[in-house]
Amino acid sequence: MSVRLYVGNLSFDATAEDLREIFSQTGEVEDAIIVTRPGGGRPRGFGFVTMSDEAAGEEAIRQLDGQEVAGRALKVNVAKEREGSRDDDTGEDEE
Fold first, then answer.
1. Which of 22, 36, 40, 89 gets the highest tally of CB atoms within 10 A of its CB?
2. How far is the C-alpha of 17 from the C-alpha of 39, rounded, in Å?
3. Is the pTM of this model over 0.85?
4. Using 50, 70 and 90 to split pLDDT, how confident is the model at 88?
């Protein structure tokens, strides 16, 4: 079963391909995204990586949490489900 990881403290220049490259060293990456601001599309400094299985996710956390990339120490952990997701009745995200 795949596992989705939160990746924080990213450089604003980081790309999804950068994430895919970094995380593929620890296991199979199914998906990688950088979260951007609505409208301007500017990166928000975090993203998500989906690893193929729990073992790959655990290994990624073990190896990459705190690792310095582009002068910034990454924060890597299992992503938490958001309450008030886009699937709710209002169609708006809660922050």
1. 22
2. 22
3. no
4. very low
